Amino acid sequence: SSSSMQPEAITRDISPVSRQSSPPIFARNPSGWHLQFFIRIDAECSFHMYPSVGGPFQSLQEAENAITSHLDELRSPMMRTDGLSDAEICIKHGLYWLDGSRKSSPEGNPDHRNVSVLVQALLDKYNEDHHLLGDLAYELDDVVIFREFYEGENFTMFYHINLTTKTKGEDGLHSAVNNLFFAEVREIEGENDEYVLNCLCMVNPTDNGQCYGCMSYGNVDLKHPVDADKYKGGHSSPHKPCCGLDLRCDVINGLDAYTESEEDRLVAEEAMLRYINMCPDDPPVLAKLDGARVPAGLAKREDSGLTKG
Asked: What's this model's pTM, rounded to 2 decimal places?
């Protein structure tokens, strides 16, 4: 049966199809949005969208039109700028995405979601390229952790990713046991970004293959194959050692460490943006209840009892 064949299918390493016979995944990054869209072309030249906005489509233009229509539906009325000054427009766009979600909030952080969508598109492409159907097909369960780094003369960008895939038991239902994989994704820069899957292989929790790109983040939680020849990136020092996302870190650059609560952090961020745009020569300030205006940091420290009156 197909389910009995599954262990063999999920434990072998990927041998990627050449770019000449299989197009890469195309990316679209609309300005002002925290959503990335990825386009996969199947063997019948139909265009599949990730995340789904309908389709499959018969042309790239149809797919892009669907993205535009989808974003028009998501656009929030609060992002209208009629009657606002240039400074207020800059503040609003600095704080919010066009759907009205706060940029610096956990819900507004796009990186994990966008990488997960990209991985699913790449897995679907691999399933088709290698004729993996039904229970043999790879299905994404979760992206556990990922790192982004650049290396080489052309500043090639790589994602190194640990992900889990869903598996099915003999009854055809998803089991509770998921498989841990390492994936390497490479970006091809051009007029629009494109992505290819360089490597996908199963790893164990004890695997510790060397990668200078991921080590530049200061932790080795991301599991790499012991055989480092299986992946192309990470064999030399990266050009941008701190470019990427640590999923465990939600500190917003530019805000003081004492800003602990989510509400306080958002208030401090707005105060900083407001006074950068409206009073560029003054430090960020917060308005106190008595009407006095003091620097944001001092206001917070006074309210916390950290300074003496």
From this structure: 0.72
